[in-house]
Amino acid sequence: MKFSDVKQPIEFDITHTGINGKPTLLFSLRDYSNGIPEDEGELVFYKFEQGSRANSGFTKGMGLGLSISKNIIE
Question: Would you state the pLDDT for residue 24?
């Protein structure tokens, strides 16, 4: 794994709720990594952008994973 220890779980959940009377799916994902710095929270969802931790010795990427994931969910 790129940012989480392979021995740590990644939890994914989908909950069917209603917001303002409309059926809504709530997607939640939790891992046990150090997280994304607060000032980079929106940046990492743009195409070809990566957080500051991406270049700290981990496998390199293109900066597309979170952008693609966000588009699929939306």
Answer: 87
Higher per-residue confidence, 65 vs 15 = 15
> How far apart, in Å, are the Cα atoms of 68 and each of 5, 7, 31, 34, 52?
23, 26, 19, 22, 19
Q: What is the pTM of this model?
A: 0.53
Rounded Cα distance between 7 and 18, Å, is 35
Query: Positive or negative CA dihedral for 14, 17, 23, 26?
Result: negative
Copy the structure tokens of residue 54: 């991406």
H-run or E-run covering 72: helix 65-73
Query: For residues 59 and 1, is the Cβ–Cβ distance under 8 A?
Result: no
Looking at residue 54, its pLDDT comes to 58
Can you tell me the mean pLDDT for 27-41? Answer: 80
